[in-house]
Amino acid sequence: MLDLGCAPGSWLIYAAKISGINGKAYGLDINEINIKLPKNAVSYKENILNINKTPLGIIKYNVVLSDMAPLTSGRKDVDAARSFKLCEIALEKACDLLVLNGNFLCKIFQGKEFKQFELNVKSNFKKTIIFKPKSSRKSSKEIFIIGLGKTRGN
Ligand SMILES: C[S@@+](CC[C@H](N)C(=O)[O-])C[C@H]1O[C@@H](n2cnc3c(N)ncnc32)[C@H](O)[C@@H]1O
Question: What CATH number matches the domain at 2-150, 3.40.50.150, 2.60.120.260, 3.40.50.10540, 3.30.450.20?
């Protein structure tokens, strides 16, 4: 499993737990993780744009998660556009690095770009689910999009 935007680390710890002792969870973030990770988890401090400078760019994954979020500006349209850009990069990497039939989950700030992102996910996965967890505040613009079963590639 690959966890993009993994700091401070709670998703990565959970990903390691559900991957089991024979599975592995890999994380990447521009910020360092300062908590102790389980034995089957490892993280790299790097920008997603430079993933190929780490060993993560050559591994094949069953699942790619992205909780990457931009620094917020306070302007919802600007933040949504920045979030969309990060999500597009996450989707591109997921398409490159997932095994055939692999799954993708991505958090995005809803804005006018959301429909385009949904279409982009739809065109690469068999099934798409849009999901807002109960724990997410109603006023929050964040929403999760899940792509199940990557349709193309290796
Ligand atoms: C909401 S936090 C993630 C929280 C994480 N899922 C957890 O469970 O602890 C969003 C993260 O996205 C990271 N991020 C933002 N832009 C990034 C980029 N270009 N490359 C890698 N990570 C990025 C931030 O540094 C931040 O740690």
Answer: 3.40.50.150
